Amino acid sequence: SEKTAEVYYLTGEVRFHQSKYADSIILFKRAVSISPDARWLPLAMYRIARSFFEISDYTNSVKTFKECIEKYNDEFIKSASLMGLVYNYEKLGSVQEAIKSSDEIMSNFADSAAAPEAYYRKAEMLYDRSEYREAEEICKIGIDRFPKSKYLGGLHYVLGRIRMAGGRYDEAIEEFRSAD
User: Fold this and answer.
1) Residue 77 zone, left/alpha/beta (φ > 0; ψ -120 to 50; rest)
2) Core-most of 72, 82, 95, 124, by most CB within 10 Å?
3) How far is CA 168 from CA 29, 103, 130, 176, in A?
4) CA 80, 83, 87 angle in degrees (round to 5)?
Protein backbone atom coordinates (compact mmCIF):
# COMPACT_ATOMS: atom_id res chain seq x y z
CA SER A 1 0.00 0.00 0.00
CA GLU A 2 1.13 3.54 -0.59
CA LYS A 3 0.45 4.25 3.11
CA THR A 4 2.72 1.49 4.46
CA ALA A 5 5.63 3.84 5.22
CA GLU A 6 3.34 6.26 6.98
CA VAL A 7 1.88 3.45 9.10
CA TYR A 8 5.40 2.43 10.16
CA TYR A 9 6.20 6.06 10.92
CA LEU A 10 3.06 6.59 13.01
CA THR A 11 3.55 3.30 14.83
CA GLY A 12 7.14 4.40 15.53
CA GLU A 13 5.75 7.61 17.04
CA VAL A 14 3.43 5.60 19.28
CA ARG A 15 6.28 3.33 20.43
CA PHE A 16 8.50 6.36 21.02
CA HIS A 17 5.87 7.97 23.25
CA GLN A 18 5.41 4.67 25.07
CA SER A 19 9.17 4.72 25.80
CA LYS A 20 9.68 1.61 23.67
CA TYR A 21 12.72 3.11 22.02
CA ALA A 22 14.28 0.00 20.49
CA ASP A 23 10.97 -0.79 18.78
CA SER A 24 10.60 2.78 17.58
CA ILE A 25 14.05 2.72 15.97
CA ILE A 26 13.11 -0.37 13.95
CA LEU A 27 9.78 1.12 12.87
CA PHE A 28 11.21 4.51 11.94
CA LYS A 29 14.01 2.89 9.95
CA ARG A 30 11.48 0.78 8.03
CA ALA A 31 9.42 3.87 7.28
CA VAL A 32 12.49 5.75 6.06
CA SER A 33 13.65 2.86 3.88
CA ILE A 34 10.25 2.65 2.18
CA SER A 35 9.73 6.38 1.72
CA PRO A 36 13.07 8.23 1.87
CA ASP A 37 11.56 11.49 0.63
CA ALA A 38 8.50 11.67 2.89
CA ARG A 39 7.60 14.99 4.48
CA TRP A 40 8.00 13.43 7.96
CA LEU A 41 11.52 12.13 7.23
CA PRO A 42 13.40 14.79 9.26
CA LEU A 43 11.26 14.12 12.32
CA ALA A 44 11.65 10.35 11.93
CA MET A 45 15.43 10.74 11.80
CA TYR A 46 15.35 13.03 14.84
CA ARG A 47 13.28 10.44 16.72
CA ILE A 48 15.76 7.72 15.77
CA ALA A 49 18.57 9.82 17.22
CA ARG A 50 16.59 10.50 20.41
CA SER A 51 15.72 6.82 20.72
CA PHE A 52 19.37 5.86 20.47
CA PHE A 53 20.07 8.33 23.28
CA GLU A 54 17.30 6.88 25.42
CA ILE A 55 18.75 3.35 25.11
CA SER A 56 22.24 4.71 25.94
CA ASP A 57 23.64 4.15 22.45
CA TYR A 58 25.34 7.54 22.47
CA THR A 59 27.62 6.85 19.51
CA ASN A 60 24.72 6.12 17.13
CA SER A 61 22.75 8.97 18.64
CA VAL A 62 25.57 11.43 17.91
CA LYS A 63 25.94 10.07 14.39
CA THR A 64 22.21 10.40 13.67
CA PHE A 65 21.88 13.86 15.24
CA LYS A 66 24.81 15.03 13.09
CA GLU A 67 23.07 13.58 10.04
CA CYS A 68 19.93 15.55 10.92
CA ILE A 69 21.95 18.77 11.23
CA GLU A 70 23.71 18.23 7.91
CA LYS A 71 20.77 17.02 5.83
CA TYR A 72 17.71 18.97 6.92
CA ASN A 73 17.18 22.68 6.58
CA ASP A 74 14.66 22.97 9.38
CA GLU A 75 15.32 25.21 12.38
CA PHE A 76 13.53 22.95 14.85
CA ILE A 77 15.35 19.80 13.69
CA LYS A 78 18.74 21.53 13.63
CA SER A 79 18.41 23.22 17.03
CA ALA A 80 16.85 20.18 18.71
CA SER A 81 19.53 17.95 17.20
CA LEU A 82 22.24 20.25 18.51
CA MET A 83 20.61 20.02 21.94
CA GLY A 84 20.65 16.25 21.55
CA LEU A 85 24.38 16.47 20.88
CA VAL A 86 24.82 18.47 24.09
CA TYR A 87 23.30 15.67 26.15
CA ASN A 88 25.16 12.94 24.27
CA TYR A 89 28.52 14.67 24.65
CA GLU A 90 27.87 15.12 28.36
CA LYS A 91 27.16 11.40 28.71
CA LEU A 92 30.32 10.61 26.71
CA GLY A 93 32.39 12.91 28.94
CA SER A 94 33.11 15.36 26.09
CA VAL A 95 32.09 18.49 27.95
CA GLN A 96 33.99 20.83 25.63
CA GLU A 97 32.04 19.44 22.66
CA ALA A 98 28.80 19.84 24.64
CA ILE A 99 29.65 23.46 25.37
CA LYS A 100 30.49 24.01 21.70
CA SER A 101 27.06 22.63 20.67
CA SER A 102 25.37 24.89 23.25
CA ASP A 103 27.26 27.87 21.83
CA GLU A 104 26.10 26.97 18.32
CA ILE A 105 22.47 26.96 19.46
CA MET A 106 22.91 30.28 21.27
CA SER A 107 24.49 31.96 18.25
CA ASN A 108 22.72 30.35 15.27
CA PHE A 109 19.32 29.51 16.79
CA ALA A 110 18.98 32.25 19.41
CA ASP A 111 15.19 32.38 19.15
CA SER A 112 14.57 28.65 18.96
CA ALA A 113 12.86 26.58 21.62
CA ALA A 114 16.25 24.96 22.34
CA ALA A 115 18.00 28.25 23.20
CA PRO A 116 16.88 28.60 26.87
CA GLU A 117 17.86 24.97 27.50
CA ALA A 118 21.26 25.59 25.88
CA TYR A 119 21.90 28.48 28.27
CA TYR A 120 20.89 26.35 31.24
CA ARG A 121 23.00 23.32 30.23
CA LYS A 122 26.03 25.49 29.47
CA ALA A 123 25.71 27.24 32.84
CA GLU A 124 25.53 23.84 34.58
CA MET A 125 28.57 22.52 32.72
CA LEU A 126 30.61 25.64 33.45
CA TYR A 127 29.60 25.48 37.12
CA ASP A 128 30.65 21.84 37.29
CA ARG A 129 34.05 22.86 35.90
CA SER A 130 34.32 25.61 38.55
CA GLU A 131 34.25 28.28 35.82
CA TYR A 132 32.03 30.43 37.99
CA ARG A 133 32.50 33.81 36.33
CA GLU A 134 31.59 32.44 32.90
CA ALA A 135 28.70 30.43 34.33
CA GLU A 136 27.36 33.50 36.12
CA GLU A 137 27.46 35.51 32.88
CA ILE A 138 25.59 32.78 30.98
CA CYS A 139 22.95 32.61 33.74
CA LYS A 140 22.40 36.37 33.67
CA ILE A 141 22.07 36.44 29.89
CA GLY A 142 19.70 33.44 29.92
CA ILE A 143 17.55 34.98 32.64
CA ASP A 144 17.34 38.30 30.77
CA ARG A 145 16.65 36.74 27.36
CA PHE A 146 14.12 34.11 28.49
CA PRO A 147 12.13 35.44 31.47
CA LYS A 148 9.22 33.06 30.82
CA SER A 149 11.20 29.91 30.02
CA LYS A 150 10.72 26.68 31.90
CA TYR A 151 14.51 26.83 32.45
CA LEU A 152 14.31 30.15 34.29
CA GLY A 153 14.16 28.48 37.71
CA GLY A 154 17.13 26.29 36.84
CA LEU A 155 19.17 29.31 35.76
CA HIS A 156 18.36 31.08 39.05
CA TYR A 157 19.31 27.94 40.96
CA VAL A 158 22.69 27.66 39.20
CA LEU A 159 23.25 31.35 39.83
CA GLY A 160 22.47 30.79 43.52
CA ARG A 161 25.00 27.95 43.69
CA ILE A 162 27.61 30.18 42.03
CA ARG A 163 27.00 32.91 44.55
CA MET A 164 27.21 30.41 47.40
CA ALA A 165 30.56 29.23 46.07
CA GLY A 166 31.73 32.86 46.08
CA GLY A 167 30.56 33.47 49.65
CA ARG A 168 27.77 35.84 48.57
CA TYR A 169 25.15 34.16 50.74
CA ASP A 170 22.47 36.88 50.78
CA GLU A 171 22.55 37.08 46.97
CA ALA A 172 22.45 33.28 46.79
CA ILE A 173 19.34 33.14 48.96
CA GLU A 174 17.61 35.62 46.67
CA GLU A 175 18.46 33.50 43.63
CA PHE A 176 17.20 30.35 45.34
CA ARG A 177 13.95 32.14 46.14
CA SER A 178 13.65 33.16 42.49
CA ALA A 179 14.19 29.56 41.44
CA ASP A 180 10.70 28.52 42.51
Assistant:
1) alpha
2) 82
3) 53, 28, 16, 12
4) 140
Could you tell me the pLDDT band of residue 2, with boundaries at 50, 70 and 90? confident
Angle at 77 between CA 61 and CA 37, to 5 degrees: 90
**What's CA 6's distance to the chain center, in Å?**
26
User: How long, in residues, is the chain?
Assistant: 180
Distances (CA, A) of 165 to 25, 96, 124, 172: 43, 22, 14, 9
The secondary structure of residue 109, as a DSSP letter, is S
Q: What burial letters (b/e) apply to 76-91, b meaning 16+ CB within 10 Å?
A: ebbbbbbbbbbbbbbe
Tell me the per-residue pLDDT of 80-98, one tens digit each, with 9 for 90 and over. Answer: 999 999 999 999 999 999 9
pTM of the model: 0.93
Cβ(59)–Cβ(71) below 8 Å:
no
Residues 6+ apart with CB under 8 A from 111: none
